[in-house]
Write a structure and sequence with these properties.
This protein has one domain (36-177). The chain is 35% helix and 24% strand. The chain contains 5 helices and 6 strands. The protein has a 6-stranded antiparallel β-sheet, sandwiched between helices. A hairpin with a 2-residue loop joins strand 4 (120-129) and strand 5. It is globular, with a radius of gyration of 19 Å.
Length: 181
């Protein structure tokens, strides 16, 4: 009996590893960035997957990127699912499809490429909605709890918004102008 339980646990852990899920819900954090970095900005729907990099001379402080990245990483979907009431913004997909579309088109992805032990790429996406920045945290779609169906976002802390909004405004202007640097 004990051997069967051990086998089941190993199978469960193996499936978790293959699927990419985490048992503890831990998140990845950046402590520091060594060396030079290159900044890449992408804008629009599914910006984090886009190949279109905005040509801009906008720059940001490494520590500010680390702070933004680490802030985003604390909102894992597993943790948020248990505390949906703590989210700052909920958009109901069924009743507000135009807001969902507006939000998805407002995505700005900030990616850094830097050299350390090996080349690393880290990125964070924010959504610029009603003059505020948000992190997307989870999409809920459950027939058993229709009141929870929707897209949930956490607002970027105010001090981070004060720093990032002017930089991201410049990136948006450069994207609209098609600046060729």
């Amino acid at each position: 009996m004990a051997r069967n339980i051990q086998c089941l646990m190993l199978v469960f852990l193996f499936v978790c590893l293959l699927s990419g899920c985490t048992v503890g819900g831990s998140s990845f954090r950046i402590d520091k960035i060594d060396g030079d970095i290159e900044c890449e900005f992408r804008i629009g729907k599914s910006a984090q997957f886009s190949k279109n990099v905005v040509k801009t001379d906008a720059v940001f402080d490494k520590q500010r990127f680390i702070d933004l990245f680490n802030e985003r990483e604390q909102y894992t979907s597993g943790r948020v699912r248990r505390h949906l009431d703590r989210c700052d913004l909920k958009i109901n997909a069924k009743d507000q499809p135009d807001k969902i579309d507006k939000m998805s088109r407002s995505e700005i992805n900030i990616k850094i490429v830097y050299d350390g032990v090996d080349e690393k790429r880290d990125s964070v996406s924010v959504y610029y909605y009603d003059s505020k920045l948000y992190f997307f945290v989870v999409c809920m779609g459950s027939n058993s709890r229709p009141e929870e169906i929707g897209y949930y976002y956490m607002e970027v802390p105010e001090d981070m918004q004060e720093y990032w909004i002017p930089i991201l405004d410049k990136v948006k202007k450069d994207a609209e102008a098609g600046t060729d640097l």
